[in-house]
Design brief:
Structural class of chain A: alpha/beta
Shape of chain B: globular
Number of helices of chain B: 16
Largest interface: A-B, 34 and 25 residues
Distance between the termini of chain A: 41 Å
Number of helices of chain A: 17
CATH class of the largest domain in chain A: Alpha Beta
CATH topology of chain B: ABC transporter involved in vitamin B12 uptake, BtuC
Structural class of chain B: mainly alpha
CATH superfamily of the largest domain in chain A: P-loop containing nucleotide triphosphate hydrolases
Radius of gyration of chain A: 26 Å
Number of domains of chain B: 1
Oligomer: heterodimer
Largest sheet of chain B: 2 strands, antiparallel
Strand content of chain B: under 5%
Strand order of the largest sheet of chain B: 1-2
Order of helices and strands of chain B: HHHHHHHHHEEHHHHHHH
Number of strands of chain A: 20
Distance between the termini of chain B: 10 Å
Helix content of chain A: 25-40%
Radius of gyration of chain B: 21 Å
CATH architecture of the largest domain in chain A: 3-Layer(aba) Sandwich
Chain lengths: 516, 328
């Protein structure tokens, strides 16, 4: 690759694909990053953006045929740490990736310590010097001996960035920020952004992987959008791009196709009432649902709507009241068992962590719904066989084998088992958190129609989700939660109105509030 | 599905292979016995050896069931069980012989001590979240010290010979403690395989958070497992000391390793890849057959350490491989 010096690109990716088993998670991706620019890489979960990061950082290889060039020099895949260092590629990991129990110097130098020439022991003096130099390059002063955990968040940001620039050539190199700011408090985001800009002004390029679209729009010069493993926008300029525009690019929904009609159920007798529910980021949410009504709850990440499912299964520190027909529950004293006894069936968002035991069979997982009391009288097999059949047939689970381990199912089929289980035993309230998270289109359709069937029997349904198209498609009414408070979407039942609702409130309340 | 097609392609029906996978261990056990019988027919192939193998393992089996209780709810190490056995086996004769406490009361006190240890273990591990290895290892050493203190560093003996009826009453040619073991295994098998409580235990093992959200009282089940482990270990101690008539507290540590070996061998039987009581029963008597057979070949006592240790490593390695293959 002798023509390297002529390349105008810091990073150039062409024809990059990745196949896991039989599923192709990345198709022929291509984009390039110029020196001195902030280039954002965005897309939904499963869109392939973390696959690209994993390939660039050497965690994974790629399919044959993909080409990655850094400053015109070829990067052999799978990437090795030494090659990445010599080409000048570094990464700031998710949530900064610092070890709070170690000093600033240790955190900056970990992975490549300067050693004494003869003894091969760590050369502390040079390590300290290198750490100081690195911090100087990002223009910050931090006490080098302090433990990182004792530093204010802003200084921790500086340390993380200093670590990533330490091995970059001065005024060059590529820093990959992989969801680095996900857990940062909003007031330290500004500092992060300033450091990033200072870095790019020296000529270093930054590849910014982020879910926070406002961050992308304020910080990035260009953006590459991935959807279902394909690049749908390669290096589009962010000038003139708005957050709703970007959301549409990411989701790929045409505007009016999904517009649905709110049913006439609204306004009936209130079957479910939530009053002044709060806890965690949520401060105040009140809503009432008629029998058979499907109501969506949404908002920006961090606005508080994601707390609702946990609050309704009993979480310490929650408050408010839930009325379900004649039953009144005080959320402060709610436990998972009381919640289930009251007929509240919840589908949690994190399927593998909270929803299903992956190492057990479909039937075992479904049987759990019947086993509220841990008695020692023998189980009756017939009931759980019937339950399992009902779920498998009702949602078209494949393979239709009760003894298949849940781990062996595809994501969509796992989700069907989870949603199907929640519908067993005549729930009085169904709460679904991201009911079609990371599932394919077919499974999504099956799950949606199962939810509608359940609602048609008179069960009120709460759907907590972040995909506007899903909410518009599925729900009779939608609540927007912002800054911990809920209010009804009144502007009309379209994806556009919903996006405007979510983002216009955000601008009203100030840009600093919607940090991830 | 994938494993099934793989098996079919080997040319044998899947059912046959599944059967082999489940019962290979039993075949090995019989083979082992046959080898000893051929090598040393005058000693091994006798009813005396048969009685020794099947009559002496009840304390070990109780310990193994104790370990199984905690393993089945996802608590992999309870290192204190052997010391609980030792404490119970020491406390009973100390109370009965040295303090002239009625034998029934002494038995109950020994069992209560086991329960108490289980309660302390469970409270520290489940409710305070202390590392279980540290808690049970510390508890193990602490209890050994207490047992030695209660006997002034000596072994204790002198239990009324009539007391041995608790463990040694002859039923169809075998001591009654053998049948206690069978009964215990059947109860544990029933609870774990056929009852809602058993399913709850399986979920506590497989994914605690899923269980909790489904209304399973995860912490209560984990705590209960430690208490039950204490009770069963102490029960093993009572059977041991009443059968033998006395006990040396220093020897309690030797029961730990065979227990784990038996439990891990058990994962190769009945339900390959998972811990189960019937497999543990087979594992226990497999080990006894091996050690007693080797001793009758004339090898000294050191052979039991070599055999137990070696078998534990092989058993764990095999169960890891089975587990990985099942994982696909």
């Amino acid at each position: 690759m002798g023509t390297g010096q002529l390349s105008p690109h810091r990073l150039s990716i062409t024809g990059l694909s990745k196949t896991h088993g039989f599923s192709r998670v990345l198709h022929d991706a291509a984009f390039d990053v110029a020196p001195g620019e902030v280039h954002a890489l965005v897309g939904q979960n499963g869109s392939g953006k973390s696959t690209i990061v994993k390939i660039l950082t050497g965690y994974q290889g790629a399919d044959a045929g993909g080409k990655v060039m850094v400053d015109g020099r070829h990067l052999a895949l799978p990437a090795r740490a030494a090659d990445l260092r010599s080409l000048g590629v570094s990464v700031v990991h998710q949530d900064l990736g610092l070890n709070p129990g170690d000093s600033v110097v240790d955190n900056i130098c970990v992975g490549s310590w300067p050693r004494h020439r003869v003894t091969r022991l760590i050369n502390r003096r040079r390590a300290t010097q290198q750490a100081r130099d690195a911090l100087e390059r990002v223009g910050e002063q931090v006490a080098l001996d302090a433990l990182v955990g004792d530093l204010p968040i802003a200084d921790q940001v500086s340390v993380a960035i200093a670590r990533s620039v330490r091995n970059l050539p001065s005024g060059g190199g590529l820093a990959i920020f992989d969801e680095s700011t996900r857990a940062l408090p909003p007031d330290s985001l500004g500092h992060f952004h300033n450091l990033t800009r200072a870095l790019t002004e020296q000529g270093t390029a930054v590849l910014l992987v982020s879910h926070n679209l406002d961050e992308v729009l304020t910080l990035a010069d260009r953006v590459t959008v991935l959807r279902s493993g394909r690049v749908v926008a390669s290096g589009a300029s962010t000038a003139g791009l708005t957050a709703p525009d970007l959301t549409r690019l990411i989701l790929g929904h045409a505007l009016d196709t999904a517009a649905a009609h709110p049913s006439a159920k609204a306004g009936g007798h209130a079957e479910l009432q939530l009053r002044e529910v709060g806890g965690g980021l949520l401060t105040d949410l009140s809503v009432s649902l008629a029998a058979g009504e499907i109501v969506g709850i949404t908002g920006l990440a961090g606005s508080g709507h994601e707390e609702v499912p946990a609050l309704l299964t009993g979480t310490p520190g929650s408050r408010g009241e839930l009325r379900l027909g004649e039953t009144v529950l005080d959320l402060r004293r709610l436990t998972p068992r009381k919640s289930i006894d009251a007929g509240i069936h919840v589908v949690p968002a994190e399927r593998a962590r909270r929803g299903l035991a992956l190492e057990l069979s479909i039937e075992d997982n479904i049987a759990l719904s019947r086993l509220r009391r841990g008695g020692i009288r023998p189980l009756v097999g017939a009931g759980q066989h019937a339950d399992t059949r009902a779920v498998i047939e009702g949602l078209d689970v494949r393979p239709p084998r009760p003894d298949a381990l849940v781990r062996t199912l595809s994501g969509g089929n796992q989700q069907k088992v989870l949603v199907g289980r929640a519908m067993l035993g005549s729930p009085r309230l169904l709460v679904l958190h991201e009911p079609t998270q990371a599932v394919d289109v077919g499974a999504r359709r099956d799950i949606h129609s199962a939810i509608r069937r359940q609602a048609a029997t008179g069960t009120p349904v709460l759907v907590i989700a972040s995909d506007p198209a899903e909410l518009i498609e599925l729900c009779d009414r939608i609540l927007l939660v912002h800054g911990g408070r809920g209010r009804e979407l009144t502007a009309g039942h379209t994806v556009e109105a919903l996006l405007d609702g979510i983002y216009s409130e955000a601008t009203l309340e100030g840009a600093t509030r919607h940090g991830n | 599905m994938a494993t099934e097609t793989k098996q079919l392609s080997l040319g044998a029906p899947a059912a046959v292979l599944r059967f082999t996978e489940r019962w290979t261990m039993v075949g090995l056990w019989i083979l082992l016995a046959l080898v000893f019988a051929v090598l040393e027919p005058s000693k091994f192939a006798t009813s005396g050896t048969f009685k020794t193998i099947f009559g002496s393992q009840a304390p070990l089996l109780f310990l193994a069931m104790a370990v199984l209780c905690t393993i089945m709810v996802g608590e992999f190490v309870d290192l204190s069980i052997a010391s609980v056995l030792g404490l119970a086996a020491t406390l009973l004769p100390v109370l009965a012989v040295q303090h002239h406490v009625p034998i029934a009361v002494a038995c109950l006190a020994a069992l209560a001590a086991g329960v108490l240890v289980g309660v302390v273990n469970g409270a520290l591990i489940v409710y305070l979240g202390v590392n279980p290895i540290v808690v049970t290892l510390g508890m193990s050493t602490l209890l050994l010290g207490l047992a030695l203190w209660s006997t002034d560093l000596n072994s204790v003996s002198g239990l009324d010979p009539h007391v041995s009826a608790i463990a040694l009453t002859d039923v169809f040619g075998l001591p009654i403690s053998f049948y206690y073991g069978i009964a215990l295994v059947l109860i544990v098998a029933y609870v774990t395989a056929l009852t809602p409580l058993g399913r709850h235990m399986r979920f506590v093992h497989a994914n605690r958070e899923v269980g909790r959200l489904a209304g399973v009282q995860v912490n209560r089940i984990r705590f209960g497992a430690f208490v039950l482990a204490g009770l069963l270990s102490a029960g093993g101690g009572v059977l041991l000391v009443t059968g033998v008539g006395g006990f040396d507290p220093n020897s309690s540590g030797t029961y730990l390793l065979p227990t784990y070996a038996a439990v891990f061998i058990g994962t190769a039987v009945v339900r390959p890849g998972s811990f189960n009581p019937i497999g543990t029963w087979i594992g226990t008597y497999f080990l006894a057959t091996g050690v007693i057979g080797l001793q009758e070949l004339g090898l000294a006592a050191w052979i039991s350490n070599v055999f137990y240790g070696g078998v534990l490593i092989v058993a764990v390695a095999v169960s890891t491989i089975i587990g990985r293959r099942r994982r696909g």
